[in-house]
Amino acid sequence: MWKLIVFTLIIPGSMAIFHTSTRQPEISASLHSDVLLPCVFSLANSKNELKYVIITWKANGVIIAQYMNGEVKASSRAEMLGSELQMGNASLILRNVSLNDKGDYECEVYEVPNLGTVKVSLKVTAAPQVFLNPKVIGFDRPVALECHAVGFYPPGNISVEWWSGSRPLPNQIPLQLYQIQDGSYRTVRHHIYTSFGMVVNDTLSCRVTHESQGGKPIVVPLQVCKPVMTVSPQTVTRGGKHNIVCKLEGCFSNAVISWINKNKSIKQYTCMSTWDCVNIITGEKKMDEFDELFCKAEVEGFDMNITQPVKIINQGGDRCPWITILVLFGVLLIISFCRVCLGVLQKVLMPRVLCITQI
Ligand SMILES: *[C@@H]1O[C@H](CO)[C@@H](O)[C@H](O)[C@H]1NC(C)=O
Ligand SMILES: *[C@@H]1O[C@H](CO)[C@@H](O)[C@H](O)[C@H]1NC(C)=O
Ligand SMILES: *[C@@H]1O[C@H](CO)[C@@H](O)[C@H](O)[C@H]1NC(C)=O
Ligand SMILES: *[C@@H]1O[C@H](CO)[C@@H](O)[C@H](O)[C@H]1NC(C)=O
Ligand SMILES: *[C@@H]1O[C@H](CO)[C@@H](O)[C@H](O)[C@H]1NC(C)=O
Ligand SMILES: *[C@@H]1O[C@H](CO)[C@@H](O)[C@H](O)[C@H]1NC(C)=O
């Protein structure tokens, strides 16, 4: 009888069921996120609690977290909550997942003499960052476009296409993939834009699909536009004092507007994240100082500078009186000359008239 009791105490769980369970065999996590790798177990002898239990998490065969003698030791980004272990939950929290974290994970729950193992495979995906170069283009000028997709993982199954309105543009050759330092990939899709054959309001966009996005494309529209520069007044008088306004409107975000006299910049203004930009020369500046005045805008994303000249004319008040005086002088000259003429005519014609009346 005594013998039997000792036996049951020493090997209490030999007849009991010991199991571990997991919900998904494959877990997918996005780069830099935190992921929970599930591992749930129930002990053969719940009375002993975790006294004789060793729990080990291995990543590709290397131990990254372990519970032993009531203590959890884990690598810096791995975590097993002691409070959850008491309830048979040995799930591992892996923080800030990197591409190197992908692979096979094993959760081993060892309670002498039983060993239960849960296998989980971790898949890491990274979403591409999509950007266009240039971001903004002028409608009427041909330009080479690039659509970049950077930092995606895994490399297979990416599609980068230029779309016009609701249809993809033809002639899209296979993409070249390049690996970057962190192990992810980048690629670029080229397209030569010409306004020829384009419907004005058909938006050109780049569409990127990748498995990290769950079938939803990332769509980045290209801004096709025409910034317009106006200068007012367009004509100024030399010597006068004028406020001249140079205004750039249209779609752009960053621009530098400069007033240039000859080839020297006299006033520069930078606009950031705006849709119109104004640079004014105030009336304190005498127009005498200017020879060839024009306003120039350098627009970010545009590979051309937009310019508008200001016409500088000599002041009207200087020239007009002289013309008037000259004209008046001329008229007076003609009148006085005619008077002399008339006098001569009279003298010549008078005797003849007298003769006629005598006859
Ligand atoms: C297990 O513990 C983790 C935290 O470590 C928790 O997020 C998760 O919900 C728990 N799972 C169960 C089944 O209790
Ligand atoms: C995550 O890890 C990367 C390096 O892999 C690091 O640059 C980044 O700062 C980390 N993020 C957080 C929130 O710790
Ligand atoms: C590409 O993705 C589709 C669904 O997004 C998937 O069914 C297919 O297996 C993937 N192909 C490769 C080679 O990964
Ligand atoms: C293009 O769109 C603008 C406003 O968004 C509209 O005024 C114009 O009529 C449209 N042009 C064509 C050809 O549809
Ligand atoms: C400006 O033009 C003059 C001649 O008109 C030239 O000598 C000078 O080098 C130019 N300066 C700049 C900065 O282009
Ligand atoms: C626009 O002007 C800037 C500064 O004067 C100059 O560096 C740049 O080459 C010009 N760009 C073009 C396309 O003419």
Automatic annotation (TrEMBL):
Keyword Phosphoprotein: no
Membrane protein topology class: Single-pass type I membrane protein
Ig-like domain ranges (all copies): 12-125, 128-223, 227-307
Classification via Gene3D superfamilies: Immunoglobulins
Keywords on record: Cell membrane, Disulfide bond, Glycoprotein, Immunoglobulin domain, Membrane, Receptor, Signal, Transmembrane, Transmembrane helix
GO terms (BP aspect): cell surface receptor signaling pathway; cellular response to lipopolysaccharide; immune response; negative regulation of T cell proliferation; positive regulation of T cell proliferation; T cell costimulation
Keyword Endoplasmic reticulum: no
Name of the protein in question: Tapasin-related protein-like
Source organism: Erpetoichthys calabaricus (Rope fish)
Gene: LOC114663225
